[in-house]
Amino acid sequence: MKLEIISAHEISFTGDVTSVTLPGKLGSFTVLKDHAPIISVLVKGLVKYTAVDGSQHELEIGGGLADVNSNVISVCVY
Predict the structure, then answer these.
(1) pTM attached to this predicted model
(2) Does CATH number 2.60.15.10 belong to domain 2-77?
(3) Within a 10 A sphere around the Cβ of 42, how many other Cβ atoms?
(4) Rounded to an integer, what distance in angstroms lies between the CA atom of residue 17 and that of residue 41?
(5) From first to last of its 78 residues, what are the pLDDT tens digits of the chain?
(6) Segments making up each domain of the chain, as ranges
């Protein structure tokens, strides 16, 4: 899967991952390969993702939007 995390000021991350956990408005949710398409509002919290090499990363966000479609996760944050 490809993950893109962007804000108005920078591209925070772009690369291949095996999983992503996002702080959704109705609670955290995890996206794995072949996830159904979804658009979600994100709230303040941590975006956690695992790169294909197995390394785990976290990024604190103030909120945003996530779009999941065809194994591409696009996250616009503030």
Answers:
(1) 0.93
(2) yes
(3) 21
(4) 21
(5) 999 999 999 999 999 999 999 999 999 999 999 999 999 999 999 999 999 999 999 999 999 999 999 999 999 999
(6) 2-77
